[in-house]
Specification:
The chain is α/β, with parallel strands linked by helices and 329 residues long. It folds into two domains: 187 residues, Rossmann fold; 108 residues, UDP-galactose 4-epimerase, domain 1 (Alpha-Beta Complex). Helices cover 39% and strands 16% of the residues. The protein is built from twelve helices and eleven strands. A seven-stranded parallel beta sheet has the order 3-2-1-4-5-6-10, with helices on both faces. α3 links the parallel β4 and β5. α3 runs parallel beside α5, α6 packs across α8 and α8 crosses α11. Belongs to the NAD(P)-dependent epimerase/dehydratase family. InterPro entries: Epimerase_deHydtase, NAD(P)-bd_dom_sf. This is NAD-dependent epimerase/dehydratase family protein. Pfam families: Epimerase.
């Protein structure tokens, strides 16, 4: 394969995917509405076609113009989007759909492809666009991929867990980056050992390419860092990447409640561990970036950006109250 069509391609995962494909010799066309700045403007190796992925006619025109060997679907948020794409791109060498670790409906450690139950998706959830229905919709998209494969479509899906890295518009990790950079003491809920598996964005991009090249039709592949960090380890890894020292202060539910907080007020906290098994993807020849290197790149871009994770901020005044309470114990 040497030509690719990326549906999306300018914000976060898609942006890194385009870069990965170009670096690996692909002729790349991106297809999107143009609502966001195109980081590849002026790059002759990346062609852009404007259109709405929900317009089947526009998708067909993009296919005719790009003549792709592989199609990467970064912005399929409703199952009907995947239905259309698997029909329109039925004859390409590979169609890769970005699903999510949120598609899993059972709490197991680790979550495994083909073993761990997926979320059901009700009729109401099929067309919903709320965060509550995100996992069910992604799971139903997976089922569309599986069904398409039975009809001879070379369709596959990748299931990343929480994605982080440069240009992350969700700013989930930026909250912790901001705290470490600006404060000597960082409040971490619980004992710091809670785990929410994450995936470095460049590795998600390479995973999509590897799955297109080496994956099997009708299969899903988990994506996540090969080394899983606890929340406290994450904070300390950030500090190391920033060349600073921080004191990690553990706060239990009682101390947090006294300041009007709960553990769930802290982004990337999860009471029950969320871990994906990535051995199936690794068997295709994929590997993840070492954690320290991934975090160093993330910190470098964070410092150039204006992101601070403030929308996830539980409030520094409340945190200071927690610290005062703990100092008196």
């Amino acid at each position: 394969m040497d030509s690719a069509l990326v549906v999306g391609g300018t914000r976060f995962i898609g942006r890194h995917l385009v870069s990965d494909l170009v670096e690996n010799g692909y002729d790349v066309t991106i297809f999107n509405r143009g609502n966001h700045e195109n980081p590849f403007e002026g790059d002759e190796s990346v062609r852009r076609i404007e259109g709405d992925r929900k317009d089947d006619g526009a998708l067909r025109r993009a296919k005719a113009a790009a003549e792709p060997d592989a199609v990467f679907d970064c912005v399929a948020y409703q199952p009907k989007d995947v239905v259309s794409a698997t029909e329109i791109f039925a004859d390409v060498d590979a169609y890769v759909y970005i699903s999510s670790g949120a598609a899993y409906g059972a709490e197991e450690i680790p979550k495994r492809e083909g073993v761990t139950e997926l979320c059901p998706c009700s009729d109401d959830q099929l067309t919903d666009d709320s965060s509550e229905s995100y996992g069910p919709r992604k799971a139903e998209g997976d089922r569309v991929v599986f069904d398409a494969a039975t009809r001879g479509v070379n369709a596959m899906s990748v299931r990343p867990t929480i994605v982080y890295g440069p240009y992350d518009y969700t700013e989930r990790l930026d909250y912790w980056l901001n705290r470490v950079e600006n404060y000597d003491r960082v409040v971490v809920p619980g004992d710091g050992t809670n785990i929410w598996h994450r995936a470095y964005v460049e590795d998600v991009a390479s995973a999509m390419r590897v799955v297109a090249e080496e994956g099997e039709a009708g299969e899903a592949y988990n994506v996540g860092d090969r080394r899983v960090l606890t929340l406290e380890e994450t904070v300390r890894t950030i500090a190391d990447a920033m060349g600073t020292d921080v004191e990690v202060v553990h706060a239990g539910e009682r101390e947090l409640a006294a300041a009007g907080l709960s553990p769930d007020d802290f982004v990337l906290y999860r009471e029950y561990p969320h871990v994906l098994d990535t051995n199936k993807l690794a068997a295709l020849g994929w590997d993840s970036t070492p954690i320290e290197e991934a975090m160093a790149r993330t910190v470098e871009e964070h410092r150039r950006s204006d992101r601070d994770g403030s929308e996830h901020d539980p409030g520094r005044d409340a945190e200071e109250s927690v610290l005062s309470i703990l100092d008196t114990l």
